[in-house]
């Protein structure tokens, strides 16, 4: 935007007309909320797993395509991690059964 003189030629932009102490306010982008920052989303996924998916779906920075891709990856990863944990627990139970049988 420009401010025009009587002859129609632009003189200054709105940024040049602003006082010195408010120029930084015109250049600032709106700050993202803390729960939409990427680092916090990663921490939420590491701690909560698929329960952090609503944060992705409510995040305005992601397109619908990225939301679907992230959701599919998180659900598949959660499924395989759950299978791995169940297998580990069964293996630990077998070892404990062998230890208790050997002692008695």
Describe this structure in words.
A two-stranded antiparallel ribbon has the order 1-2. The termini are far apart. The protein is 63% helix and 7% strand. It is built from five helices and two strands, in the order E-E-H-H-H-H-H. The radius of gyration is 28 Å and the shape is rod-shaped. The model has no long low-confidence stretch (mean pLDDT 83). It has helices at residues 14-17, 23-27, 38-48, 53-58, 64-103; strands spanning 2-4, 10-13. The chain is mainly alpha-helical and 104 residues long.
List the helices and strands and how they pair.
Elements: E1 2-4, E2 10-13, H1 14-17, H2 23-27, H3 38-48, H4 53-58, H5 64-103
Antiparallel strand pairs: 1-2
Lateral arrangement of strands in the main beta sheet: 1-2
DSSP helix fraction: 55-70%
Mean pLDDT: 83
Number of strands: 2
Broad shape: rod-shaped
Q: State the helix count.
A: 5
Q: What are the low-pLDDT stretches, counting only 5+ consecutive residues below 50? A: none
Give the SSE order as H and E letters.
EEHHHHH
Give the radius of gyration. Answer: 28 Å
Beta content: 5-15%
Task: Give the terminus-to-terminus CA distance.
Answer: 88 Å
Secondary structure class reads mainly alpha
Strand count, sense and closure of the main sheet? 2 strands, antiparallel
């Amino acid at each position: 935007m420009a401010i025009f003189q009587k002859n129609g030629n632009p003189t200054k932009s709105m940024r040049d007309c602003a006082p010195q102490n408010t120029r930084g306010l015109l250049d600032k982008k709106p700050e993202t909320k803390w729960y939409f920052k990427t680092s916090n989303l990663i921490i939420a996924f590491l701690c909560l797993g698929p329960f952090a998916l609503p944060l992705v779906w409510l995040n305005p920075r992601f397109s619908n395509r990225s939301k679907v891709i992230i959701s599919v990856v998180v659900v598949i990863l959660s499924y395989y991690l759950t299978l791995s944990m169940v297998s580990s627990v069964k293996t630990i139970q077998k070892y404990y059964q062998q230890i208790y049988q050997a002692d008695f």
